[in-house]
Design goal:
Blueprint lengths: L8 H9 L3 H13 L4 H20 L9 H15 L6 H22 L23 H7 L5 H21 L9 H12 L4 H20 L28 H9 L6 H16 L3 H5 L6 E2 L4 E4 L8 E4 L2 H13 L22 H14 L9 H14 L4 H8 L5 H4 L6 H9 L7
Antiparallel strand pairs: 1-2, 2-3
Helix pairs in contact: 2-3, 2-5, 4-5, 7-8, 7-9, 11-13, 11-15, 14-15
């Protein structure tokens, strides 16, 4: 595999003659399988050669001994390549550039090595008090992993507040403490996040009481902020803005072909980012011209007619942009490691193009195009039940917000002479 990246035979011989040459070659094979760029391989191999020399000079003779020298090598690398004027973020980046290839190689050749990596966080900070809470959410309430991550996020906020006020025993919880948490949180985040946190805390307190971990059920003491139905305006964009959004995508590059197909899927079918990221080759029936979206909310599945425009965009990406992979997912990362794209990346790409053409909407992301799809159907005077079935809103009240204002008419009034409507 080395000959793919190094032309001169003496360079390859020098790498293989190193006492960790076999480990380096394994690592180069691993990088190649994951589609890392040649410049990345050529940059990392000399660094690993230096690491091998560093460890050898300090007494290492077996690969199993290498982990003990990784931290010292990174510190030495930073000291050599960082001047005294470098900022701390710059030093951290140089340290990461040395640490990542060393630890990746060691994970390949030293079986029990785990490295530093990202710090491991438990699913929630109350595991020692309520270890069965997340199994309860998963098994009894049937929540998805994305919902469990949201539970963990808000429970960590609650734990941080308890630590700030010095409350260590949950049995000392009281309504004033819970109210203080809600007030403190409302000063830092938007109302919908406060409402989500209150709902999660309500479930958590109810579980603690059910398991007799609290002497009293405190869940009724958690009061969510008052919200009003139809109080907000949908964060959709106009159809002309959709055209501008699609036109700004550079479809000459693999990333552009992928993003163009993703944008069309979102705005044509009103899909969620998670549903686009989960799409597989098996979900597209080319013969019957059908697009199947499995595992939607509440376990439902939906089949759509495959739009010729969407189908052509997907074909263009599959033929000219998608990497060769055994994985059946449709959309992949462009840069290494070329894994299937995540739902966060789908939303991020939409946000990127919205900002690129200067469209300002609250919380720009994939749901902007979902709202645009629904608004388009409402403006076309489709029945709310039909629209709800199309985008999998199982309650028509979720669609009513799109009917409360004539978005296009109001835009015309705002941009024109207001006296014309008098």
């Amino acid at each position: 595999m080395l000959q793919l990246f190094f032309v001169r035979p003496d360079t390859i011989d020098r790498i293989r003659s190193s006492w960790i040459g076999g480990a380096i070659e394994q690592y180069v094979t691993w990088l190649t399988e994951r589609k890392y760029a040649a410049r990345t391989v050529c940059r990392r191999v000399p660094m690993l050669m230096r690491f091998g020399e560093f460890a050898w000079d300090r007494g290492a003779r077996k690969w199993e001994e290498l982990p003990g020298f990784a931290a010292d090598f990174v510190a030495s690398w930073v000291a050599t390549h960082c001047g005294p004027c470098r900022s701390q973020p710059a030093r951290d980046q140089i340290a990461k550039a040395a640490r990542v290839p060393v630890e990746q190689m060691l994970r390949l050749v030293v079986g029990d090595f785990r490295g530093t990596g990202r710090p491991h966080r438990p699913p929630h900070p109350f595991l020692n008090v309520a270890p069965g809470f997340f199994p309860y959410l998963r098994q009894e309430r049937g929540l998805r992993e994305s919902s469990l991550r949201l539970y963990g996020h808000h429970l960590r906020q609650f734990a941080a507040y308890l630590e700030k006020i010095g409350l260590q025993d949950l049995r000392h919880l009281s309504p004033p403490v819970l109210s203080g948490f809600v007030i403190d949180l409302s000063r830092r985040v938007i109302g919908s996040s406060v409402r989500n946190a209150c709902g999660i805390l309500h479930v958590f307190l109810g579980y603690l009481y059910r398991e007799r971990l609290l002497p009293k059920d405190l869940s009724p003491a958690v009061e969510s902020p008052q919200t009003y139905r139809l109080a907000k305006i949908p964060r959709s964009i106009t159809w002309d803005e959709v055209r501008r959004l699609l036109e700004t995508v550079d479809r000459r590059a693999p990333a552009g072909r992928r993003d163009y197909a993703i944008l069309l899927l979102l705005v044509t079918y009103g899909l969620r980012a998670r549903e686009v990221a989960a799409l597989t080759l098996d979900d597209i029936d080319w013969r019957q011209e059908r697009l199947r979206i499995p595992e939607r909310k509440a376990g439902h599945s939906t089949a759509y007619p495959l739009s010729p425009v969407v189908g052509q965009a997907i074909v263009d990406y599959l033929q000219n942009g998608r990497p060769q992979a055994a994985d059946r997912h449709v959309f992949f990362r462009v840069v290494a490691p070329q894994n299937p794209i995540t739902e966060a990346a789908v939303s991020s790409r939409v946000s990127h193009y919205l900002h690129k053409i200067g469209i300002e909407v609250p919380r720009a992301g994939s749901h902007t195009l979902r709202h645009t799809c629904v608004q388009r159907l409402v403006d076309a005077e489709f029945d709310l039940k039909v629209i709800g079935d199309y985008v999998v809103y199982h309650d028509t009240t979720s669609t009513e917000i799109y009917t409360k204002v004539a978005i296009e008419s109001l835009r015309e009034v705002a941009c024109g002479d207001g006296e014309e409507i008098l």
